[in-house]
Amino acid sequence: MTTPLQIITRALQTINQLGEGESPTATQANDGLIYFNDLVQSWNNQNLLINEMTFVTLPLTGAASYTIGTGGTLNTVRPIHISSAFYRDSQNYDYPVQMLTREEFDAIPQKGQASTMAYAMYVAYTYPLITAYVYPVASTGSLILNYAKQLQAAATLTTILALPDGYERALRFALAAEMQPEYGLSNPLVMQMAAQSVALLKRTNHRTRKLNTGAVIRPNVLVGY
């Protein structure tokens, strides 16, 4: 367990802005928290820096589309990217769902076609809420949506952070590299250590993709089910 303040302190020590046993000033600490949260939000856009997959359940009500995010139809943290989904019927049987591109979804002539189950979905990454379009339109069962669990920004300097192995070191050196320009510094060794520690996380989090041989969408035809 650690806190943003501890990581910020070590990062400032790394770029020689603090000596052994010294603490950041209030200004240094608060500026460091901004840099820390900016860094975390940047990492959330890089799948290989996310170590955990999670899922949410979207009950189907017969609507053609659903919003996902804080205050949406599905009120949850807005996913950065939904990687896959499957349909679960009332008997708890699961069926694969094809993730469509915008072009594939546009090619479906009867988007409001009703069915007893959903076979496919298109996700528009609108902001602040994602919009998920379901095809065909189903009023029973649920979609189980899988996505990478975001690293959470810290509300305060003393927020307790539970980080997997390697993340504290990577955050320390990456934060040090981010803050260097603030102090007019550019230390190649710090940049090298930051790149190395981030590369190790990406190597650990790498997931081998399998060839997708699922259903193929054609206009008004669903092949493979």
What would a concise description of this structure say?
The protein has five helices and eleven strands.
Structure description:
This protein has 225 residues and is of the alpha+beta class. The protein is 29% helix and 24% strand. The chain has helices at 4-14, 26-43, 102-106, 167-179, 188-205; strands spanning 53-59, 65-68, 82-88, 94-100, 114-115, 120-124, 130-135, 137-138, 142-148, 216-218, 221-223. Strands 1-9-3-4-6-7-2 form a 7-stranded mixed beta sheet. The longest helix has 18 residues, at 26-43. 24% of the residues are buried.
Write the layout of secondary structure elements.
Layout: H1 4-14, H2 26-43, E1 53-59, E2 65-68, E3 82-88, E4 94-100, H3 102-106, E5 114-115, E6 120-124, E7 130-135, E8 137-138, E9 142-148, H4 167-179, H5 188-205, E10 216-218, E11 221-223
Parallel strand pairs: 4-6, 5-8
Antiparallel strand pairs: 1-9, 2-7, 3-4, 3-9, 6-7, 10-11
Average pLDDT level: 91
Class inferred from helices and paired strands: alpha+beta
End-to-end separation: 48 Å
Number of helices: 5
Give unreliable regions as ranges.
Answer: 216-221
* Rg value: 22 Å
